[in-house]
């Protein structure tokens, strides 16, 4: 991963570029800033110039569609691991975000190109607030944080990025060799575990106690006396 590497000072979105171009597996697209950084469900990702890491990679894993959720957890786990190496204590918000001090520091957007039951291509886009001064960013100042704010010092973005790509590559190959269970790793570091949470599904709202992950990578809520699993990546998990 990262053997082929495409750099932009500015781009609409590294995910869009990765989707629209025919790139080899492992190609990494990086930008100093994005004018149309994307979150899930058409939300936007603020990509302050020169402060963060905004990149996407293209993968073509030989896995079954029903393993996709489990597979996707490799990426939040890899970000978790890399932030942990900075002596910080991140938590993983299922299914795709990383939090520090109860605020979002990183988000991951995985987009799939599926034909029938075959995965043609996956684009994994990762955004990390590295040296942002979040106070300056009105839109997100109450919900977001950065590595700089949590650590109290600037982080060398290049060094961090190299470590992150190494961790992703290691975890990706370990997964394919059945030597890494990302479900276990995410569960061990799950944000809001054993706390009351709610799940938003369109206009529906479901409350329960977050108990952990099931063997497909879905989350388990205790609702009354029952345990119920939730899977769709279109759900949003919130604190009550
Ligand atoms: P979900 O649980 O559905 O993932 P979410 O609120 O985390 O919910 P996403 O679509 O994953 O939503 O992420 C986009 C959201 O992240 C935006 O609505 C915005 O609130 C927030 N956001 C945007 N840019 C940043 C950033 N640089 N740092 C932290 N948060 C951001
Ligand atoms: C989310 O929190 O919903 C996911 C945010 C993902 C942001 C990254 S930044 C690099 C890549 N390009 C994008 O447009 N989005 C992802």
Structural topology:
Layout: E1 5-11, H1 14-20, E2 28-34, E3 53-59, H2 68-72, H3 74-84, E4 91-93, E5 97-100, E6 103-115, E7 118-128, H4 147-151, H5 157-176, H6 182-188, E8 196-201, E9 204-213, E10 219-223, E11 226-230, E12 236-239
Bound molecules: adenosine-5'-triphosphate and biotin.
Helix-strand topology string: EHEEHHEEEEHHHEEEEE
Please state the CA-atom Rg, rounded to the nearest Å. 17 Å
Q: What is the count of distinct domains?
A: 2
The molecules bound to the chains, other than polymers, are: adenosine-5'-triphosphate, biotin
| Unreliable segments of 5+ consecutive residues | none
Q: What is the annotated CATH architecture of the largest domain?
A: 2-Layer Sandwich
Ends: how far apart? 39 Å
Question: What is the CATH C-level name of the largest domain?
Answer: Alpha Beta
Describe this structure in words.
With 240 residues, the chain is α+β, with helices and mostly antiparallel strands. The chain folds into two domains: 5-188, BirA Bifunctional Protein, domain 2, CATH 3.30.930; 196-239, SH3 type barrels (Roll), CATH 2.30.30. Helices cover 23% and strands 34% of the residues. The chain is built from six helices and twelve strands. It has helices at residues 14-20, 68-72, 74-84, 147-151, 157-176, 182-188; strands spanning 5-11, 28-34, 53-59, 91-93, 97-100, 103-115, 118-128, 196-201, 204-213, 219-223, 226-230, 236-239. The chain has a seven-stranded mixed sheet, with helices on both faces. It has a five-stranded antiparallel sheet with strand order 11-10-9-8-12. A hairpin with a 3-residue loop joins strand 4 (91-93) and strand 5 (97-100). Helix 3 packs across helix 5. The protein is globular and about 55 Å long. It starts with a strand and ends with a strand. The mean pLDDT is 96.
């Amino acid at each position: 991963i990262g053997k082929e590497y495409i750099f932009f000072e500015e781009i609409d979105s590294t995910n869009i570029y990765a989707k629209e171009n025919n790139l080899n597996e492992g190609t990494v697209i990086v930008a100093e800033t994005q004018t149309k950084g994307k979150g899930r469900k058409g939300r936007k990702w603020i990509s302050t110039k020169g402060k963060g890491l905004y990149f996407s990679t293209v993968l073509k894993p030989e896995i079954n569609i029903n393993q996709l959720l489990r597979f996707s957890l490799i990426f939040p786990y890899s970000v978790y691991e890399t932030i942990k190496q900075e002596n910080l204590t991140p938590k993983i918000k299922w299914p795709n975000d990383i939090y520090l001090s109860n605020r979002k520091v990183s988000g991951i957007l995985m987009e799939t190109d599926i034909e029938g039951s075959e995965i043609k291509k996956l684009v994994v886009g990762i955004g990390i607030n590295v040296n942002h001064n979040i106070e300056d960013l009105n839109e997100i100042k109450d919900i977001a944080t950065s590595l700089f704010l949590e650590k109290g010092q600037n982080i060398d973005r290049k060094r961090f990025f190299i470590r992150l790509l190494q961790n992703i590559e290691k975890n990706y190959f370990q997964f394919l060799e059945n030597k890494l269970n990302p479900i276990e790793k995410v569960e061990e570091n799950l944000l809001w575990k054993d706390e009351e949470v709610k799940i938003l599904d369109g206009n529906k709202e479901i409350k329960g106690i977050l108990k952990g992950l099931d063997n497909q990578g879905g989350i388990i809520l205790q609702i009354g006396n029952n345990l119920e699993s939730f899977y769709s990546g279109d759900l949003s998990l919130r604190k009550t």
